[in-house]
Amino acid sequence: MNTGPEAISPGLAWFPDALPCPRTAEVDRIALLVARSREGCHDAYAELIGRHRDRIYRFCLGWTGNAQDAEELCQDVFVRAYSALPRYQGEQHFAAWLFRIARNRCHDHHRSRARRDASMNRPLESSGVVGFTAPGLSPDETAADSEALAKLRQAIASLPERLREVLVLCGVEGLSQEECAELLGCSRRAVEGRLYRARQELAALLGNAIA
């Protein structure tokens, strides 16, 4: 997954004005891929998926606390997004648009699961250890996860939904509080308050302070 702008060749470093802004180039590329996907180009949509899949998967995983559910939801998000592309007008960043679809799907999943669990009279909590890694890690990589990290993942998964989603969006995915507020349809102050409470509850769950 691309985590930053590509390195600039030393030979071009003396001509910054001649270089495109990496952020602008990324936005332009996404816009081009969206346009081509609308025209039915499957390769373009495959690239869009490749650029965003890890983040959407991690969001679903942090929200549901279950790897299998997160994988299914992640796939469903991209299926639904493809169907909804004609309605996407670029009013917000494509990643934010995907996060909104993912959040709606996680809400639907939670309500459906809550009804199912209530009818079966069994607890809602999932079993197993939660991970924020993308699908496809080797067994050796998975086994290398530390016990402390596993406890952190479990603690995040146990937080109330309103606190969990801001912690995942801001703490895991690196969204700013302004971006998170826009995505959740609330004020920046509300996000700040939820994030503060999420960190406090997480610290209490882990039994030590989190800076």
Short overview:
By secondary structure, the chain is mainly alpha-helical.
What's the shape?
globular
CATH topology of the largest domain: Rna Polymerase Sigma Factor, Chain: A
CATH architecture of the largest domain: Orthogonal Bundle
The portion of residues forming beta strands comes to under 5%
CATH homologous superfamily annotation of the largest domain: RNA polymerase sigma factor, region 2, helix turn helix motif
Give the biggest beta sheet: none
Spell the H/E element sequence.
HHHHHHHHH
- Gyration radius, rounded: 19 Å
Number of strands: 0
CATH class type of the largest domain: Mainly Alpha
Question: Kindly state the mean pLDDT as a whole number?
Answer: 74
The total number of structural domains is 2
Number of helices: 9
Question: Would you tell me the structural class of the helices and strands?
Answer: mainly alpha
Low-confidence runs = 1-21, 117-144
- The rounded distance between the terminal residues' Cα atoms is 27 Å
Helix content: 55-70%
